[in-house]
Amino acid sequence: MSSEFVLAIMFASLVGLLLTGLPLAFTLGALALVFTITLWGPAALSVTVLNLYSTMTSESLLAIPLYVMMASILQRSGVIESLYRAMELWSRRLPGGLAVGTIAICTIIAAMTGIVGAAVAAMGMLALPSMLKRKYSPELAIGTICAGGTLGILIPPSVITIVYAVTAQASIGQMFIAGVVPGLLLASLYIGYIVLRSALNPSIAPRPDNDVPATWEERIASLKSLILPLLIIVGVLGTIYMGIATPTEAAAVGVFLAFLSSLIERRFGWELVSGVALDVVKVTAMILWITIGARAFVAIFTGTGGADFLLSFIQDLDTNRWIVLAVMLGILFFLGMFLDEMGIILLCVPVFLPVIDFLEFDRLWFGILFLVSAQMAYISPPFGYTLFYMKGVLPAGIGMGTVYRAIVPFILLQAIGIFICALFPELVLWLPQSMIN
Hints:
Blueprint: H1 3-19, H2 24-40, H3 45-56, H4 63-77, H5 79-91, H6 97-113, H7 116-133, H8 138-149, H9 151-154, H10 159-168, H11 172-178, H12 180-200, H13 216-222, H14 227-241, H15 247-264, H16 270-303, H17 306-316, H18 321-336, H19 341-358, H20 363-378, H21 385-391, H22 400-423, H23 426-433
Helix pairs in contact: 1-2, 2-16, 3-16, 4-15, 4-16, 5-6, 6-7, 6-8, 6-12, 6-14, 7-8, 8-22, 10-19, 11-23, 12-22, 14-15, 16-19, 17-19, 18-19, 18-20, 19-20, 20-22
């Protein structure tokens, strides 16, 4: 059989099994097993086992359970609630002030945890009832929380960034730092949109009529809630940027500071410890099982000449390299409607990177564009993860139709963010290039 025919059967089988609802990890693993035995015989499975063993003993992947642990502790420690109360005092008199404050809090949560679910769940329980009580448009409130929550993909420390860097064999530290400016750019776009739309149409974010403004003493006193988050951000990102610690070592620092926060907030106890342990096991096991299945599947793809076939196909195209890049990003966005982002990274990165090298694009820069497209996928119907996180905290009377309408403007803002980062690569590259090694 020709390699093209084998590849066609592989991907047709993948799509068919995914449509049945089977988990991605086991779908990929089963297909890899069947095709390995069919093409090369049972003895070839030893190569697969050796490849998986090298993956599972990777020190870089050790950072994943540590960052998940840090995020889980912070979500349960009361730090986020204190932050939201402070931000509400400072922002509630602005046009769309509560929504603006929500984006600001999501940005801080992203820089502390790197987990999308942490921000969406926390803001869904804290910010959504507060905005709806103030007669905010449900679409503006929901869209703000969904979009703000996805900043955890890009702003470090991001678990998805770690998976991308390990798969692309890139520096996790440089990938972390490269995501800072684009993440802040997206947060600024969200805030600008909220303020402009609220100023033009005050009915979607009405200001309180009889609300007594907070005094300066109250506002300044509330700033103490920023101390712990800033310590965590500096402890994690500062040590990476200054070259003091590797991303894995910085994760351990973050876990220690998160535990310290729970002690200060008087939330430390058996309930927190048991809940954190369960979160770490569930999330880490999910990521590693997907990694196992995807690595095995990609090994078959490469072994049958799939990467060479794709590269030769791109080389034979007589078209502009920017059009090829746009098509690749469009494929990522489309896949994000149906697949988990971890699976997309593990499937697409080994295939796309040789093409990126051939087109003479910077790998680090492409990685950030990849992650922004993952943000778009996280809020894209029908299967964007953030939409399901949001569904779990929706009040009665608000359906998924409202959620789908709410995220449309923010998907467009993310597309603008990708365009800006593509047009000005310096936004992505200048900060990692200034890192102290």
